[in-house]
Q: What sequence folds into this?
């Protein structure tokens, strides 16, 4: 059994590119998870292509980079990709120079500005909702009115909940529910598990599907995204999913590890 696991890990280590979720994989809140520094050092030493891919739309890549710096990790800004960037890229391809009414944080607004979009509260092409703390009845009412008038409805990610220290909070899909119900429209969601986000990630990595693996702590976003995109999947049990929860799903990850530190060759020597 040990030899089988060793061979499996060797195959995983041979991958050229890694798509890596952040919360629950790299850190919890403001706490770096065990084995992460060793894993990141290994990625650099082996010259692996790697991308931190997050469904969070609140922060820009520079802010995520600075957070990792505060936690003791030196990672270039180019190694981050968010659902806000995926949303902006999609909308730019659909409606260049368009406009949007946005309920979201600076990471989302900035990504849309950079993609050539303008903010519009009167007759926008899109209503865009992301993870946010600036959520109010007035903003819901405005969004519903605009969608009923013809604006198309977009969500940055389909997460119902997000983790915080000590519990969970409603995420984009939960916040979207009143707008969908009142407008009679269904939002189109970017972010994992939408294959478009994984396709963007693979292009940024410069590797093919068979050369990559995705590492995450959620079965309903990270693992299904990898499966539907044809890349190997790694579930780490350092986040929201334990083995009991994993077994409730009708699909399985290719690898199940306690944390990303187990991927490094030195971990086995210490075990």
A:
């Amino acid at each position: 059994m040990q030899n089988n696991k060793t061979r499996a890990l060797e195959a995983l280590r041979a991958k050229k590119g890694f798509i890596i979720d952040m919360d629950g994989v790299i850190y919890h809140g403001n706490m770096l998870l065990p084995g992460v520094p060793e894993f990141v050092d290994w990625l650099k030493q082996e010259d692996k292509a790697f991308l931190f891919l997050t469904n969070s739309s609140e922060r820009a890549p520079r802010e995520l980079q600075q957070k990792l710096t505060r936690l003791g990790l030196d990672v270039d800004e180019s190694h981050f990709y968010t659902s806000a960037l995926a949303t902006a890229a999609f909308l730019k391809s659909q409606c260049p120079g368009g406009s949007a009414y946005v309920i979201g944080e600076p990471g989302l607004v900035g990504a849309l500005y950079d993609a050539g979009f303008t903010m519009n509260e009167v007759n926008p092409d899109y209503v865009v909702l992301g993870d946010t703390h600036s959520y109010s009845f007035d903003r819901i009412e405005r969004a519903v009115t605009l969608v009923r008038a013809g604006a198309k409805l977009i969500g940055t990610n389909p997460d119902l909940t997000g983790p915080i220290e000590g519990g969970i909070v409603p995420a984009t899909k939960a916040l979207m529910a009143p707008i969908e119900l009142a407008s009679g429209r269904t939002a189109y969601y970017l972010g994992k598990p939408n294959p478009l986000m994984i396709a963007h990630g693979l292009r940024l990595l410069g590797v093919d599907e068979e050369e990559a693996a995705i590492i995450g702590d959620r079965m309903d976003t990270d693992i299904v995204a990898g499966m539907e995109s044809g890349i190997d999947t790694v579930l780490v049990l350092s986040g929201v999913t334990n083995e009991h929860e994993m077994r409730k799903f009708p699909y399985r990850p290719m690898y199940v590890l306690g944390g990303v530190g187990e991927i490094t060759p030195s971990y086995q020597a210490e075990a």
Observations:
- DSSP finds eleven helices and 15 strands in the chain.
- The chain has a mean pLDDT of 93.
- The CA atoms of residues 66 and 175 lie 28 Å apart.
- The chain has two domains: 2-55+192-270, 94-189.
